[in-house]
Automatic annotation (TrEMBL):
This is Iron-containing alcohol dehydrogenase. Keywords: Oxidoreductase. It comes from Pantoea dispersa. The keyword Ubl conjugation does not apply. It holds the Pfam family ADH_Fe_C.
């Protein structure tokens, strides 16, 4: 048997297409049961809510607003409030909303507080039980609608960003409606999309990968490149771009679930434990110095994979593939999200580096290289 056996986890039902959110109410009506909605406040102010809200309210018990990456205390509080009253969950929002709903649905079927089950800090294995979940992303980036993990962040007490993970936590239903991306600020579109790129790129380069995962990732990267320059256009080209990016994000979730991630997320996960930075922006900022490091790599498998990527995605470029990719991403971005921004303290950099790792990358990067990547991405004060 191959050492790198790839397993595919996906939704039982995936609805894709512009306007597909209109299928939500008929889905709920076809199988009535007590349902709780998780959403962001922006969704409640959206045209989709204005059109569907009155009817949707007839099929839900209530809703919880998620405005940031959920903490263990928040999830435990929601479970205490709704245990015994909810049999199904709907999540409409960005990755933080979807992850909060996934964690809630799982913990409704588990007896202990969520921290006991989290990777990195927990002491109890999760069980293969969760409430059914319908996931509807309103951003294209995390791929949470198709992943088996829910990210939970505690920046106050135990300072950890970790996953609750099991294959049954993949949402049963995903509704992928590219029109839900319309009207999002340019920075949100760009930083979410670069998160999808990072999922695809790191999964493509993963030492756990094989032809199956690499081709899935390449397909997603190709869709990303079709979409990246046009995400904010209010015309048919913009519609096609948002459709392609929604698909790229879903493929990013499939890819990371199959092959894992690399050093960018190995750093981002620890930084997210202490700083409230947007995760997609963190990944994007780290991506560019990583591409500089990758351009200098002599590792034969990294070189082979980058050459194959360049042949598929950048066939006319003569620069080293990593540098050509970096230049294209920055030149074609709808907003230069990597400029200016927040700062880090030197002691925070040391804290992050002491805990970061290279995950499933071919190279195990040393602390000096990790520090170099972080200080290239943020100004250190």
């Amino acid at each position: 048997m191959s050492e790198n056996l790839i397993e595919l986890y996906s939704n039982q039902q995936t609805l894709f297409g512009r306007g597909s959110i209109d299928r939500l109410v008929p889905l709920l009506a076809a199988n009535p049961q007590p349902t709780l909605l998780f959403c962001g406040r922006s969704f409640l102010n959206s045209p989709a809510w204005a059109r569907l809200g009155a009817t949707l309210n007839d099929h839900i018990l209530g809703y919880e607003i998620v405005s940031h990456e959920a903490s263990p205390d928040e999830i435990d509080g929601w479970v205490t409030r709704w245990r015994g009253h909810v049999d199904r969950v709907v999540a409409i929002g960005g990755g933080s909303v979807l992850d909060a709903a996934k964690a809630f649905g799982a913990m409704m079927q588990h007896p202990l507080n969520i921290a006991r089950y989290l990777e990195k800090v927990g002491d109890t294995p999760v069980q293969a039980v969760t409430l059914p979940l319908i996931a509807i992303p309103t951003t294209a980036g995390t791929g949470s609608e198709v992943t088996q993990n829910a990210v939970v962040t505690d920046q106050q007490h135990i300072k950890v960003k970790a996953s609750l993970r099991h294959p049954v936590f993949v949402p049963q239903v995903a509704i992928l409606d590219p029109d839900l991306l319309k009207g999002a600020p340019d920075r949100v579109l760009a930083t979410c999309a670069i998160d999808a790129f990072t999922h695809l790129f790191e999964a493509y380069l993963s030492r756990k990968g094989n032809l199956f995962s690499q081709q899935n990732a390449l397909n997603g990267l190709q869709l990303f490149m079709q979409a990246w320059p046009y995400l904010n256009q209010d015309d048919s080209r913009g519609d096609a771009a948002r459709e392609a990016m929604m698909m790229a994000s879903w493929l990013g979730g499939v890819s990371l679930s199959s092959a894992g991630l690399g050093v960018i997320h190995g750093i981002a996960g620890e930084l997210g434990a202490i700083k409230p930075f947007h995760h997609g922006e963190v990944c994007g900022r780290l991506l560019f110095p990583f591409l500089d490091v990758l351009a200098e790599s002599a590792h034969p498998e990294q070189q082979r994979l980058m050459a194959a990527l360049a042949e598929r995605l950048l066939p006319d470029e003569t620069a080293p593939p990593a540098l050509a990719l970096k230049a294209w991403l920055q030149q074609q971005a709808i907003v230069p999200f990597w400029l200016e921004g927040p700062t880090l303290a030197a002691e925070e950099v040391d804290w992050i580096v002491a805990r970061a790792n290279s995950k499933n990358g071919w190279v195990n990067y040393d602390p000096a290289t990790l520090t170099e990547m972080i200080t290239a991405a943020w100004r250190v004060v």
